[in-house]
Amino acid sequence: MPFKLTVLGSNSAIPAFGRNPSGQVLETDNSAYLIDCGEGTQMRMDEFKIKKSKILVIFISHLHGDHIFGLPGLITSYCLGGRSKKLQIFGPHGLKEFIHTTLNLSYSYVNFDLEITEIGTEIAAEIYSDHNVMVEAVPLKHRVPTMGFIFKENPRRPKLNKSLIEKYNLSKEQIVQILNGEDIGMDEEWFLAPRIPRSYAYISDTSYAPEIIPHLKGIQVLYHEATYDEDKRTLAEERYHSTSVDAARIAQGCGCSKLLLGHFSSRYHSTEPLAVSAKTIFPNTECVHDGFVLEL
Amino acid sequence: MPFKLTVLGSNSAIPAFGRNPSGQVLETDNSAYLIDCGEGTQMRMDEFKIKKSKILVIFISHLHGDHIFGLPGLITSYCLGGRSKKLQIFGPHGLKEFIHTTLNLSYSYVNFDLEITEIGTEIAAEIYSDHNVMVEAVPLKHRVPTMGFIFKENPRRPKLNKSLIEKYNLSKEQIVQILNGEDIGMDEEWFLAPRIPRSYAYISDTSYAPEIIPHLKGIQVLYHEATYDEDKRTLAEERYHSTSVDAARIAQGCGCSKLLLGHFSSRYHSTEPLAVSAKTIFPNTECVHDGFVLEL
User: Is the ipTM of this complex over 0.95?
Assistant: First the structure.
């Protein structure tokens, strides 16, 4: 099963240098999950060849415009495009009013099953699960109620090692015994170790919040906002945002294998210096860009 | 003075083939007027090198999402970017609630003078004027209250013909007499004929509405929606949209010099066939595209 991340927008509030506001897609075989939905998200999905109809669930971190202003257009396109599949949206309080008001005033009629769930952002909690993933929301420290999302692939069952079955030419009865965990009197590892479940954490927007580290332990890939470089620490603190060094400290603390930086201020033409600062603390750091893809 | 049209989005409701929803900018020397504001309008302004700060007034034809979903993002960018200049927005009833609700729920604080004027769409009326232009709203025939907009450059004063002043070496007193319209006993045309005021009409969205023709008499350039080609006439009528032939009939009726077609259905990969159909009735027809520019 693929576990593929595509970044649709890598900038913070004001679009700049061709960088768009926040939006990411995590794709598995038949499903996809949209994380935040800034203005233009539906166009970026077209541009980066992501089938809009594949989106099962949308997770909204907070209600700042650069994370939600693409929702009315995307939902309207689903209405006009004849979506029949259910769409679930999770986000903070106020999300229902935002969606219902924009759709009603624009004369959009939702003709599919749209389920909006508003959740508190004060405590960490599992908010969603299906046959592919479990999603946990984690409180962040921003000017408005905000949460991060941790995606964990469901553990796989160990697979029977077929080569051993062939090697010993086992009978059906013996195979059933092995599957039932019974001893058939042979000292072999009948099962192949399953792949380690993949995991991804999306942390945007927040000031430096080391209290989230325990929730992130064991995560493979961490996306953490890095609106500013270290020389703008005071500004970052004033605006409840992080520097790229803050992000690196969180990555170091949680022991992930890779750190992705995004949500860049429109003051940066090149974002590379932010990665340079972060790498002094967490070497495997990379800045994302619109269209960035990572196969986990 | 320039009188320059830039098309930001040429598609109808669902973005397709790189074509974005409605948005156009009409620029003069120091001012610019935005007509409709579909999702992504602020990004298209960046892409097509239009200074967002130049926009004085926004005219909204109707409240369907593909004409308004870019407003919250644009206004928020003005807030964050430190706009100080007043912004006026004209549009149908419901526009205030749309703007206020989206800004409030997204914690956006308007820190400049934002004046929203809701206008009835039942009768034609002059709704705006300044030192450059006069704008008239014209009722259209769509599923929801909708108006078109006619932009007319203010008439210029005739300019004194300086070469004649030099030729006859006129005194200051004689010049004042000429400016006051007095006869100084010489049979000359002291004034150069002023340029004919330029004019542009934006007609989107509407079914075929020949009743608007009297309002469009004397217009130079007409933009008229052409969601469908002639073979989709029934669909066009059902959905209160026009075919390109409908648009051509309106152009022929009002005697404009040029017809621009836009607001294309996402069923069309190439829009050229729509121009071919229209040209059988009105030869000087052109399909617009995102980034299309016309100096009037």
Answer: no
